[in-house]
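Same chain as my last thread, 210 residues:
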Amino acid sequence: MSLYLETALQVAFIWTLACCTPGANVLLTMNTALRYNRLLAIGSAAGVTAAVILWGIMGASGVLIILQTFPWLFGLLKLLGGSYLLYLGLSKIYSTLKQGSKQPYDIAERENLKSPWHLIRLAFFTSIVNPKTGLFVISLFSVAMPKDPSWPITILCVSIMGSITLLWHLFLACVFSTTSAQTLYQKSVNLIDYLTGGLFTLFGIKIIAS
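reply #2:
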């Protein structure tokens, strides 16, 4: 029982730090909450969580070891993930430029532009092609997991990872979808959208170059 408790505490501590580290996943949930509404941001949180669980399963099954064994395969994943983040960032900048000085959508109009299912898919794909998440999983499993973990311990650890991810992104969804946060966003919508697009672009470049 002590092994379960020790492993669970280590996984919870390390993954909490990894989860709260600013990155594409956090940025996507925050931007969704600010630009749209809480329901859509919750969809983003669900998509990120599903991707983290899948990354955890891949880590437990040895798929990530294969990526480590064949550097070209991991390099291909980094190229794919970085290119996708570049696409998200440049698309964001382009759409902001295109909008220019036009009046931003009000909250009611923007709520009709997306569906929760769309945000779940977007967040899932953004997270699953992001090799940074995979590197966090590899680090976690190498530091916190026993040498030959049993399936119950593995399931426990993946569940902890998913729960922490969901709770953190739900917190972001609730905080940044408040009326005061969205009002502040509306006052500086173009600046924040440029900043968001720029950060996605930088994350993409960093992943490709790493």
